[in-house]
């Protein structure tokens, strides 16, 4: 088993609230380890609405989901959090003398003095393709995220899905420079109508017209290994069976969040939300804090702004626990030399 990483603070979830949690901890001189199931930070903002405008972040009249995440990442840069992305926290157990044993799906282990659950609506996981034989495909043949540029160069790719993500992936592949471009791109959706942004649909239509992308209506019935390639059996709109030979499937059927393991840690919950007090944002286990969309308390609103406040108060409560002998001073970032030093602006 891996040697556990010992830390003062572990943040579960790198959504906007988890990121601001890192900032508040950093201001208090507490370094954070951050775990997220996704390969990139940003939570719902990045995953569900990267290009949509947000209008209710204080002092930011408008920014997109992606821009908010970029700004939060910039803001926490001085505190150099350690990232553990692409892995889900699966286990959490209180230790006899305080703190927690935490383990992730990739076998990482932590001993954390305090833990902050900022898990939002749960770990984001791609919806899988329910087709016969899907388990027989190799990892390089079955992709759930658009891989780095060039990975699919010269290959025949079947993109499955009919929403923004699927259309965007088909376009990204179609727009790749020759050296990195797939040999053929087919977009398969069960209906003739795609539900993506009009601008994306217009670009897709242009690619279909030029023959760069083939659009096919139908549903995958089964897949099979066929001499290094994948034989895909599709039922088309008329109920006819169609055979496609491809090298890789890029499944983009959306993502569904799963609260999963968190609901099995014996914490007090109400309607699938963690119950916390609104002064310390602590769960039913001392030292285990929770903030953002994953919590409930009287008056809770699932807004980013509210999550920022929760992360701030949770930090003060954690400082009292980690440094019990230290008087709790409220310092301003404008005037405090100590905070300036931590921010690297001294
Ligand atoms: P999330 O953003 O959900 O992030 C949680 C993260 O935790 C995820 O990345 C997830 O993968 C990870 N995670 C969960 N469980 C685990 C685990 N066990 N192990 C590892 N990682 C885990 N709010 C506003 O204030 N203003 C708006 O204008 C606004 N517009 C919105 C528009 C849309 C379309 C949607 C869907 C939401 C909008 N919201 C808006 C709500 C806002 O996005 C959420 O309140 C916010 O994202 C909550 O942040 P969070 O950090 O608590 O959780």
From TrEMBL:
Binds 1 FAD per subunit. Its cofactor is FAD. FAD binds at residues 36, 44, 49, 89, 124, 293, 334. GO terms for molecular function: ferredoxin-NADP+ reductase activity; flavin adenine dinucleotide binding; NADP binding. Coiled coil: none annotated. InterPro entries: FAD/NAD-bd_sf, FAD/NAD-binding_dom, Fd--NADP_Rdtase_type_2, Ferredoxin-NADP_redctase_2. It catalyses: 2 reduced [2Fe-2S]-[ferredoxin] + NADP(+) + H(+) = 2 oxidized [2Fe-2S]-[ferredoxin] + NADPH. Pfam families: Pyr_redox_2. It comes from the Bacteria. It is an enzyme of class 1 (oxidoreductase). Residues 9-296 form the FAD/NAD(P)-binding domain. Its EC number is 1.18.1.2. Keywords: FAD, Flavoprotein, NADP, Oxidoreductase. HAMAP family: FENR2. Homodimer. Belongs to the ferredoxin--NADP reductase type 2 family. This is Ferredoxin--NADP reductase.
């Amino acid at each position: 088993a891996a040697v556990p990483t010992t830390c003062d603070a572990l943040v579960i979830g790198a959504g906007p609230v988890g990121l601001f949690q890192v900032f508040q901890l950093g201001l208090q001189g507490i370094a954070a380890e951050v775990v997220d199931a996704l390969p990139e930070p940003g939570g719902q903002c990045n995953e569900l609405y990267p290009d949509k405008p947000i209008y209710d972040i204080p002092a930011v009249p408008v920014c997109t989901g992606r821009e908010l995440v970029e700004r939060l990442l910039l803001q926490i840069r001085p505190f150099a959090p350690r990232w553990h992305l692409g892995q889900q926290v699966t286990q959490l157990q209180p230790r006899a003398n305080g703190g927690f044993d935490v383990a992730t799906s990739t076998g990482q282990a932590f001993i954390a003095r305090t833990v902050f659950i900022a898990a939002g609506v749960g770990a984001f996981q791609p919806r899988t393709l329910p087709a016969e034989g899907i388990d027989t495909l190799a990892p390089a043949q079955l992709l759930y995220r658009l891989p780095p540029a060039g990975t699919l160069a010269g290959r025949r790719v079947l993109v499955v899905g009919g929403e923004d993500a699927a259309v965007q992936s088909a376009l990204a592949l179609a727009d790749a420079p020759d050296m990195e471009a797939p040999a053929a791109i087919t977009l398969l959706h069960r209906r003739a109508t795609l539900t993506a942004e009009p601008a994306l649909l217009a670009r897709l239509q242009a690619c279909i017209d030029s023959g760069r992308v083939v659009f096919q209506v139908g549903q995958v019935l089964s897949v099979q290994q066929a001499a290094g390639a994948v034989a895909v059996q599709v039922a088309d709109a008329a109920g006819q069976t169609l055979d496609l030979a491809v090298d890789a499937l890029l499944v983009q059927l959306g993502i569904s969040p799963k609260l999963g393991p968190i609901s099995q840690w014996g914490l007090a919950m109400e309607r699938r939300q963690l119950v916390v007090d609104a002064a310390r944002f602590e769960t039913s286990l001392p030292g285990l804090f929770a903030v953002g969309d994953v919590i409930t308390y009287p008056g809770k609103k699932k807004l980013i702004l509210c999550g920022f406040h929760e992360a701030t108060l949770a930090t003060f409560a954690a400082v009292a626990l980690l440094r019990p002998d230290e008087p709790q001073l409220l310092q301003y970032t404008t005037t405090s030399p100590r905070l300036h030093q931590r921010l690297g602006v001294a």
